[in-house]
Sequence to fold (165 residues):
Amino acid sequence: MRTRLSLGVVGLGEWGLRVARTIADLPRAELAWLCDRDPNVLHRVSDRNPAARSTVRVDDLLGDDALDAVVVATPSASRPEIAGRALEADKHVLIREPIALTGAGADDLVAQAEQRRRHLAAAGGLVQDAAVRGLGTLLERGDLGEVYYLTVRRQQPGGDGRDVL
Fold:
Protein backbone atom coordinates (compact mmCIF):
# COMPACT_ATOMS: atom_id res chain seq x y z
CA MET A 1 0.00 0.00 0.00
CA ARG A 2 1.35 3.39 -1.02
CA THR A 3 1.62 5.85 1.85
CA ARG A 4 2.66 9.03 0.04
CA LEU A 5 0.12 11.21 -1.73
CA SER A 6 1.23 12.26 -5.22
CA LEU A 7 0.30 15.88 -6.02
CA GLY A 8 0.63 18.27 -8.92
CA VAL A 9 0.34 22.06 -8.86
CA VAL A 10 -1.12 23.92 -11.84
CA GLY A 11 -0.34 27.64 -11.75
CA LEU A 12 2.88 28.81 -10.15
CA GLY A 13 1.98 32.34 -9.16
CA GLU A 14 2.30 33.55 -5.57
CA TRP A 15 -0.22 31.12 -4.07
CA GLY A 16 0.83 28.17 -6.24
CA LEU A 17 4.46 28.63 -5.23
CA ARG A 18 3.52 28.61 -1.55
CA VAL A 19 1.48 25.43 -2.00
CA ALA A 20 4.31 23.74 -3.92
CA ARG A 21 6.80 24.61 -1.15
CA THR A 22 4.42 23.25 1.48
CA ILE A 23 3.82 20.01 -0.40
CA ALA A 24 7.55 19.51 -0.94
CA ASP A 25 8.07 19.72 2.84
CA LEU A 26 5.35 17.23 3.79
CA PRO A 27 6.68 13.78 4.71
CA ARG A 28 3.57 11.93 3.46
CA ALA A 29 3.25 13.84 0.19
CA GLU A 30 5.20 13.94 -3.03
CA LEU A 31 5.34 17.00 -5.25
CA ALA A 32 5.18 15.01 -8.49
CA TRP A 33 4.28 17.71 -11.05
CA LEU A 34 4.69 21.44 -11.61
CA CYS A 35 2.69 23.09 -14.37
CA ASP A 36 2.63 26.68 -15.58
CA ARG A 37 2.01 28.16 -19.01
CA ASP A 38 5.07 30.43 -18.66
CA PRO A 39 8.22 28.37 -19.41
CA ASN A 40 10.42 30.92 -17.59
CA VAL A 41 8.43 30.59 -14.37
CA LEU A 42 8.37 26.84 -14.75
CA HIS A 43 12.14 26.70 -15.24
CA ARG A 44 12.82 28.77 -12.09
CA VAL A 45 10.49 26.68 -9.94
CA SER A 46 11.56 23.31 -11.33
CA ASP A 47 15.19 24.14 -10.52
CA ARG A 48 14.16 24.27 -6.84
CA ASN A 49 12.15 21.02 -7.15
CA PRO A 50 14.27 18.67 -9.28
CA ALA A 51 12.31 15.54 -8.32
CA ALA A 52 9.06 16.99 -9.72
CA ARG A 53 8.30 16.70 -13.40
CA SER A 54 7.48 20.00 -15.06
CA THR A 55 5.31 20.92 -18.01
CA VAL A 56 3.50 23.77 -19.71
CA ARG A 57 0.68 21.37 -20.68
CA VAL A 58 -2.00 20.46 -18.13
CA ASP A 59 -2.71 17.27 -20.12
CA ASP A 60 0.75 15.94 -19.24
CA LEU A 61 0.06 15.76 -15.53
CA LEU A 62 -3.59 14.75 -15.95
CA GLY A 63 -2.41 11.76 -17.98
CA ASP A 64 -0.25 10.47 -15.12
CA ASP A 65 -2.17 7.57 -13.56
CA ALA A 66 0.06 7.70 -10.46
CA LEU A 67 -1.00 11.29 -9.69
CA ASP A 68 -3.60 11.39 -6.89
CA ALA A 69 -4.57 15.05 -6.75
CA VAL A 70 -4.21 18.39 -8.48
CA VAL A 71 -3.94 21.82 -6.89
CA VAL A 72 -5.47 24.45 -9.18
CA ALA A 73 -3.84 27.82 -8.49
CA THR A 74 -4.46 29.56 -11.81
CA PRO A 75 -6.31 32.84 -12.43
CA SER A 76 -10.02 32.70 -11.54
CA ALA A 77 -11.42 32.44 -15.07
CA SER A 78 -9.42 29.28 -15.86
CA ARG A 79 -9.99 27.42 -12.58
CA PRO A 80 -13.34 25.73 -13.35
CA GLU A 81 -12.16 24.33 -16.68
CA ILE A 82 -8.90 22.96 -15.28
CA ALA A 83 -10.60 21.56 -12.17
CA GLY A 84 -13.27 19.92 -14.34
CA ARG A 85 -10.63 18.29 -16.50
CA ALA A 86 -8.79 17.05 -13.41
CA LEU A 87 -12.00 15.52 -12.07
CA GLU A 88 -12.62 13.87 -15.45
CA ALA A 89 -9.13 12.39 -15.16
CA ASP A 90 -10.18 10.93 -11.77
CA LYS A 91 -7.97 13.24 -9.71
CA HIS A 92 -8.93 14.82 -6.41
CA VAL A 93 -8.85 18.62 -6.61
CA LEU A 94 -7.84 21.43 -4.27
CA ILE A 95 -8.84 24.68 -5.92
CA ARG A 96 -8.19 28.24 -4.89
CA GLU A 97 -11.34 30.23 -4.18
CA PRO A 98 -13.44 31.26 -5.91
CA ILE A 99 -13.84 27.85 -7.53
CA ALA A 100 -15.94 29.40 -10.30
CA LEU A 101 -17.13 32.83 -11.33
CA THR A 102 -20.80 31.79 -11.17
CA GLY A 103 -22.89 29.73 -8.81
CA ALA A 104 -23.87 27.45 -11.68
CA GLY A 105 -20.20 26.86 -12.48
CA ALA A 106 -19.49 25.95 -8.86
CA ASP A 107 -22.53 23.65 -8.76
CA ASP A 108 -21.29 21.88 -11.90
CA LEU A 109 -17.90 21.17 -10.32
CA VAL A 110 -19.49 19.88 -7.11
CA ALA A 111 -21.82 17.60 -9.09
CA GLN A 112 -18.93 16.32 -11.18
CA ALA A 113 -16.85 15.56 -8.07
CA GLU A 114 -19.77 13.72 -6.48
CA GLN A 115 -20.44 11.72 -9.64
CA ARG A 116 -16.79 10.67 -9.91
CA ARG A 117 -16.46 10.16 -6.15
CA ARG A 118 -13.55 12.55 -5.93
CA HIS A 119 -12.82 15.18 -3.32
CA LEU A 120 -13.19 18.81 -4.38
CA ALA A 121 -11.97 21.29 -1.79
CA ALA A 122 -11.78 25.08 -1.92
CA ALA A 123 -8.82 26.84 -0.36
CA GLY A 124 -8.59 30.47 0.53
CA GLY A 125 -8.44 32.84 3.41
CA LEU A 126 -11.80 34.53 3.10
CA VAL A 127 -13.93 31.41 3.58
CA GLN A 128 -12.48 30.90 7.05
CA ASP A 129 -12.35 34.60 8.00
CA ALA A 130 -14.49 35.29 11.09
CA ALA A 131 -15.73 38.63 9.74
CA VAL A 132 -16.84 37.11 6.45
CA ARG A 133 -18.56 34.22 8.20
CA GLY A 134 -20.31 36.64 10.54
CA LEU A 135 -21.49 38.72 7.60
CA GLY A 136 -22.78 35.55 5.93
CA THR A 137 -24.79 34.72 9.04
CA LEU A 138 -26.32 38.21 9.11
CA LEU A 139 -27.25 37.93 5.43
CA GLU A 140 -28.76 34.45 5.82
CA ARG A 141 -30.90 35.55 8.79
CA GLY A 142 -32.05 38.66 6.95
CA ASP A 143 -30.75 40.94 9.70
CA LEU A 144 -29.45 43.43 7.13
CA GLY A 145 -32.68 43.64 5.19
CA GLU A 146 -32.66 43.28 1.43
CA VAL A 147 -29.07 43.64 0.26
CA TYR A 148 -28.65 44.94 -3.28
CA TYR A 149 -24.91 45.36 -3.42
CA LEU A 150 -21.95 44.24 -1.37
CA THR A 151 -18.27 44.90 -1.87
CA VAL A 152 -15.30 43.59 0.08
CA ARG A 153 -11.75 44.86 0.00
CA ARG A 154 -8.99 42.52 1.06
CA GLN A 155 -6.58 44.25 3.44
CA GLN A 156 -3.96 41.58 3.96
CA PRO A 157 -1.00 40.12 2.06
CA GLY A 158 -1.58 37.25 -0.32
CA GLY A 159 -3.17 38.83 -3.36
CA ASP A 160 -5.74 41.49 -3.93
CA GLY A 161 -8.23 39.45 -5.95
CA ARG A 162 -7.91 41.58 -9.10
CA ASP A 163 -8.17 38.51 -11.31
CA VAL A 164 -11.65 37.66 -10.01
CA LEU A 165 -13.74 40.21 -11.88
About this structure: The longest strand covers residues 29-35. The mean pLDDT is 88. The CA atoms of residues 4 and 164 lie 34 Å apart.
